[in-house]
Design a protein that fits this description.
Chain lengths: ~180, ~290
């Protein structure tokens, strides 16, 4: 599926997409409160620099990419990016709660929380937003092959953990953040 | 034991394989317990991931349904503010048109004209790359018949106009006579392309319709006329004799090409062309040799 939100001016389009953008920002930083703050900063930036949006570009893809770009820029500007606090388990699990009480089991939530943000967003874009690998790659500034490789690695990693759990072993491999290469 | 990569097995679980490939994998699964267990684990993992993101999606939909999307503080523009901005913009546009009417020709204020005669820049349309011909075409859209009909006395002297333009653009620039084609020369002015490169604009008016403009700028090389459409405005661009030209107007390709060819081949234009301005006195004529 292709990204398909097209608008002449970005403001009404952004307002219509706020829930999706909120979800994207939440999952990126791993907690609702910080996600809302990131989204607010990104929206202000997008509206202030509206001229950078080229008509004909899918607005959702552009907006997601802008949020991701801002997050990455802030990460790079951080004095010690490796020591940034990771969202606690309770805050992260809250992202999967809804009013019907439907939520993700703790094992899966814990696995998702252990993933690097880039891999979480890959899952979000492909499984929830239903973007194809090309559009997801454009948002996350990686080749489509990397998106495919990430999905395989994530599924394989979760499968490994599930198998280990069934075998009674508790150890698991946490994926490295910066070692991704297309398969 | 058969070895199948996780990539292949995940594609199988995701239903992304062709039918024959799927059947081949299924045959392996029937014979290989290890691979079969791996596929079960991958299916389980895939199912959990999909469920997780469906839960997120469901939660977001409920949030969206229960409350209208909040507009972040500081982003809202009230109607009165919007109206004031619109009035201010209209005032700026009107002031610009009046300025054009008052200072339409650089003879009256050459320095000022060189510094500030660039027309207001309309919203950039992504389809238009920013070359000077296209900048000029966008600027051309600001002119209407009324703005050209406000003539100035100084514009009446075509020789003087040609002299001033040649001084700024180059000695080969002439003011084409398009009367045989039904267009009367109205006025000319110097615009600016880029930082400081002078750009001449010669405006003509036919018996009806929008004005026709010939833009000229110093350039190199020779290029044959080529037509391009800029929104509602058509343009023919070419280069010759050290000058680059753009003929722009709300006309079709055939009409503009015909006019462009007439300008290029205009007979006698060179004879009427003023010589370039030079601060130096003309060189002395050689004295005739005394006859011995």
């Amino acid at each position: 599926m292709q990204a398909e939100e097209f608008h002449d001016t970005i403001r009404p389009g952004l307002i219509a997409m706020l829930p999706r953008l909120q979800r994207f920002a939440d999952l990126l930083v791993g907690a609702r409160k910080e996600g809302t703050a990131l989204l607010r900063r990104a929206l202000l930036l997008m509206l202030a620099e509206e001229h950078r949006y080229q008509r004909g570009t899918a607005l959702d893809r552009w907006a997601f990419a802008e949020i991701y770009r801002l997050w990455l820029a802030e990460l790079r500007d951080h004095a010690d990016p490796m020591r940034q606090a990771r969202a606690d388990g309770a805050s992260f699990a809250q992202l999967f709660h809804n009013k019907r009480g439907r939520k993700v089991d703790e094992f899966t939530a814990s696995f998702l929380r252990s993933l690097p943000p880039q891999q979480r967003l890959t899952l979000l874009l492909c499984y929830a937003e239903r973007f194809d690998h090309i559009d997801a790659g454009r948002v996350l500034d990686v080749p489509p092959e990397t998106i495919g490789a990430r999905l395989v690695r994530i599924s394989a990693s979760l499968a490994d953990r599930l198998s280990e759990r069934e075998c009674g072993t508790a150890t698991a491999t946490v994926e490295a953040l910066y070692s991704e290469r297309p398969a | 034991m058969t070895e199948l990569s996780d990539e292949l097995l995940v594609a199988y679980v995701d239903g992304q394989l062709a039918r024959k490939q799927t059947q081949a994998v299924e045959r392996v699964l029937e014979q290989d317990d290890v691979i079969a267990k791996r596929v079960v684990a991958l299916k389980h993992a895939h199912s959990r991931l999909e469920t997780a993101f469906e839960a997120i999606l469901a939660g977001e939909e409920e949030d969206a349904a229960s409350k209208p999307p909040a507009i972040p503080p500081g982003l809202y523009i009230s109607w009165p503010t919007l109206a004031k901005s619109a009035l201010a913009s209209a005032g700026l546009v009107l002031a610009f048109i009046l300025m054009l009417a008052g200072f339409g020709w650089p003879l009256q204020a050459p320095e000022f004209s060189l510094e500030s005669s660039v027309p207001a820049d309309p919203d950039y349309v992504g389809a238009l790359p920013s070359t000077w011909q296209e900048d000029a075409a966008r600027a051309h859209a600001l002119f209407s018949r009324a703005s050209v009909e406000v003539g100035l006395e100084s514009q009446g002297n075509a020789d003087l106009v040609a002299f001033q333009l040649a001084q700024a653009i180059g000695p080969n620039l002439v003011v084409p006579d398009l009367a045989p084609q039904g267009f009367r020369f109205m006025r000319a002015q110097l615009l600016r392309s880029g930082e400081a490169t002078p750009l001449a604009q010669l405006l003509y008016l036919g018996k009806r319709g929008a004005p026709l403009a010939l833009y000229a700028q110093a350039g190199e090389g020779t290029a044959a006329p080529a037509f391009k459409q800029y929104g509602s405005i058509g343009g023919v661009a070419w280069s010759q004799s050290g000058l680059a030209y753009l003929l722009a107007g709300e006309a079709d390709e055939a009409s503009l090409m015909k006019l462009a060819n007439a300008i290029r081949t205009e007979k006698g234009a060179s004879a009427k062309a003023p010589s370039a301005f030079s601060p130096l006195p003309p060189p002395p004529k050689p004295k005739p040799k005394p006859r011995s």
